[in-house]
Amino acid sequence: MARPVIRRLSDHVVDLIAAGEVVERPAAALKELVENALDAGATRIDVALRGGGRDVIEVVDNGRGMDAEELPLAVQRHCTSKLPDDNLTAIQTLGFRGEALPSIGASARLSLVSRTAEAESAWELSVEGGVMKGPFPAAGSVGTRVVVRDLFFATPARRKFLKTVRVESGHAESVMRRIALSAPECAFRVTFDGREIMNLPPQDMPGRVASILAVPEDNLLHLDEQRGAMRLSGYLCGPGESRRTGAGQFMLVNHRPVVDPVLRTAVRVAYRPVIERGRFPIFLLHLQVPLERVDVNVHPAKTELRFADEAEVRGFVIGAVGRALARGAGEGGGIQADLSVIGRHAGQEAAQLSQSHASASQQRLDTIPARDFGFGPSVRRLTPPQGGRSQHGEGVAEGQRSYTTAFAGLDERAMAVQPDSSEPQTVPPFYPLGVPIGQIHATYILSIAPNGDLILTDQHAAHERLTHERLRARFAEGAITAQALLMPEVVDLPHDESIALLQCAEELAGLGLEIEAFGSGSILVRSLPAPLSGGDVAGLLRDVAEELAQMPDLAARQTDSLESRFEAIMARMACHGSIRAGRILKQEEMEALLRGMEQHPRANTCPHGRPTWLRLDRAGLETLFGRVK
């Protein structure tokens, strides 16, 4: 057999190989063309696809355009206007590699018509299977019109493996949604086979997010935090509004749409305590980091990137999202359902936040104007306990005793009091969940919010969440009782996983999981956390070790394997230890439960991710009674 000889591939074959990396499907070609338009300063972009993009992709923009000298360079590899020098560490444009148009021209029939503001006419250039024709004078307005026909006709194998029109159209729509979120100041119109899919005017960011995520703007929770040179901003939906897939999750890094596993993991960890298993949160997050701290030149498609310090980014995102979700129940509105607004906002540990919520509530008392709740004579007001005066006016000594016995686990600061005063209090407090006025079916607490809305609270789900918070606080403090094993168990692990596990031995011991080295690659387990006793010791250890080995900067308590087991146990314990549906509550008990929810983060959902309260506003009532104009 003859020895193979190294030879240089032809430029055409090289272009075809590059095309397979940059343009893997019609949506990828569409992404590159629209990003070029944005880099050219376009304020309006029209997109038309036929056959899912296999037959025709047309992108028309009103950007700066190109002249006759630039057009031939635009379709040659590694020619770009977006890198003024050879510095790849300060990239501020969406594109920069100079590969998209040459790759499309090598595998499809490409036509460009472009005109600058100074030119008297437009110029047209075409590329078919890598062969260029033009440029020729043509008619056209300022900007660029790009038409791609018969994508992958020059590479039949690639065209053969494209999916159905519906699937390819779905990918193209996802691309346009991500890009539209990254450029709210630009108008977009998108049609598929003559059917309008998207028509967005220039908008502010909240309006664009509401349009793309298909949620009311009032239901969006704003996030804006900064740590050093990093800034995280964006909009979140509460855990009560989630989806079965991750289609409602969008992330930007320095205005670039990305699909980044580091950011996805961080958001998942932040939402994990409050969202139902198997559901996905809805959000847009925009992370801004110094250009030299992120590398976007790791993949031809430019949807992946690398951070200089992934652990720092992950920790910042987890904390920021957690704090954005960390509000007491009822604060900031919720999610519109049939007759309700589902409570939202969750967050960090209750022990850290209940004091801040109490002080914030105290400060609000001096600024909230008096409101007439319009209660009838059948609703009796509560009296203040000894040593203080209720924010509702009259004495609640009996209510305090009832609260202590029935809801001993609630934070006593839930029954917030004002200092003694010789004058009766005339300024009602700002209680987002309102004043309870009764029960429905001995299961749901009915209350009136400060703005007159009706609130329905599931008493079992609400108390279940507050009981769960106490257990979580113990877990966060490492105050978990260890259950010694009668016979220590030996678990064999790969070398890297055993090392990762032993490095966290001290932290695991604080959680009740005592381990030590037992030969090469083996771990001796002496005790388990008491709530997890009787479980699969080897399975638990292997799962935790695998996660720690894959993400060495992750704390042991943050691993899915350990926390999910604790969450399941704590949720079960909270369920059994909470008041049940069907129990008749006293006025004071209902009051204590609502105030406790307002003090604790994550109280908008139960430990299983279901809402604890719903709101019926005036618009909902008028719809029910046919009073909508």
Automatic annotation (TrEMBL):
Q: Which segments constitute the DNA mismatch repair protein S5 domain?
A: 212-326
Alphabetized, the UniProt keywords read: DNA damage, DNA repair, Endonuclease, Hydrolase, Nuclease
Q: Which Gene3D superfamilies match?
A: 3.30.230.10, Histidine kinase-like ATPase, C-terminal domain, MutL, C-terminal domain, dimerisation subdomain, MutL, C-terminal domain, regulatory subdomain
**UniProt KW Transferase keyword:** no
Does the record's keyword annotation contain Cell membrane? Answer: no
User: Which stretches make up the MutL C-terminal dimerisation domain?
Assistant: 436-585
What PROSITE patterns does UniProt report for this protein, alphabetically? DNA_MISMATCH_REPAIR_1
Offer an example of a GO molecular function term for this protein: endonuclease activity
**What's this chain's function?**
This protein is involved in the repair of mismatches in DNA. It is required for dam-dependent methyl-directed DNA mismatch repair. May act as a 'molecular matchmaker', a protein that promotes the formation of a stable complex between two or more DNA-binding proteins in an ATP-dependent manner without itself being part of a final effector complex.
Per the record, the similarity remark reads: Belongs to the DNA mismatch repair MutL/HexB family.
Which NCBIfam families does UniProt cross-reference here? mutl
Protein name as it appears in the record: DNA mismatch repair protein MutL
